[in-house]
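From the pipeline queue, job 12 of 40. The input is one protein chain; the requested action is below.

Action: predict structure.
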Amino acid sequence: MDNYDVKYAWRVTPILGSVALLVMYTEAMLMPSLPKIQSEFNVTPADVSWVLTIYLIVGTISAALFGSLGDIYGKKKILSIIISLYAAAVTFTGYAPTFETLLVARAVQGLGMAMFPLAFSLIREQFPPQLVPTAQGVISAMFGAGIIIALPTGAYIAQNFGWRATYHTATPLAVFLAMVIWIYVREGAYKTPRKIDYLGISLFGTAAASMLLAISKGPDWGWTSPRVITLFLLSVVAWAVFTLRQLTADEPFLPRDILNRNVVASTIAIMIVAYAFQMNSQNLTYLFQMPPPYGYGLTVLQTGLYMLPIAAVQIVVAPLSGRLVWRLGAKAVAVAGVVFAVVGYQLAVSHLYSGVWTLIGYLTIAFTGLALLNVSLINLLTFSVPRHRLGSATGLNTVFRNFGSAIAPSVAGSVLTNYSTYIAFNTPMGPMYFSVPSKDAYVINIDIATAMFLITLVPILLSKEVLGRGGGT
């Protein structure tokens, strides 16, 4: 496709960007509501965690599956189906009569994760090359915008009107976006009709679901419990058989021609970015809410408000990153992102207790790096695979992002638990002691993320430049 419609590109960019805005708005609003959901359905904290776990598992599998189906049947067609199902699931979640039906609705809602690889693929496929990085940056910015809108809005709605009302506000947005995508987004010209590798899909689903379930439930069930060990063993076996299947099948689920060094670099790096983002959220939640001298003693609402400037960085930096990627190259911007992330995190470690705004300022530097990485990595990936394979490649990228998001709470939570101390509170019945994370716990978590960023420099530096002065289109 040599002739591009620039006006169409600018018109469709906010539509596809709204996909990220909608999903992040819906998901971020859910977080403050989990205690209310637990109370209404009279379930345990371990039970209510399934609201998040089932979404993550289904979302991870669907990202790879529907990304691949988009290459076969058309990305717009699959995107339209997915957002229609997502709109229905969001509506049903708000009216779920039992906890079991709520989990079913959340599972269907997990299909929404497949919208991201399809949106990224449509942009690369249909937009003029020079506009692709900026458009990808706009979508990345919408992730931050969704969080900024959802955190205070979700807390307010849940507190005053109930948790179901948060979903009622998302329903009309989802329905409207589904209609707009169907009307205004064009179908891509690149399709690759081929047989569906049902065995490969089954093996991939088994491997991914087992691993994510073991990682998510390890802290609750115990890392050495028979269930967790069995899940890990099942995952290892399934991955091994899946790999063999992909190497020998004539038409494998994940096409072999997408696995070049740029795809490997971007998928590994995006997993670390997702890990760092989730780790930071968990670290800050405890640091802000724990009582002095181990924290800042803030309320839940104050914590959410103080996190808004960090999320706002995405809105400003991500679109600018797209322009830098086009001029300097995806690889160069990715390296710059690692530098910003490492410097920002290490400055934050040195000033954990120098005041909230000082800490926020240094973390803003780190999140500037994360924004640079998000935009540069998706462009490094999409400009490195054939256009008829974009769905499969971006779906794989989303899978690794979800793995990073799933691993972070388990690792960070274990550090916060194992490196803890006790503080005393005076009560009418005498002093009572409570366990809180020590100062070392926050430092260790950030240092782990820093080390991971430094390690990811290796695959990034080994990748091949595809844009800027050192690459092409």
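Job complete. The chain has 17 helices and two strands.
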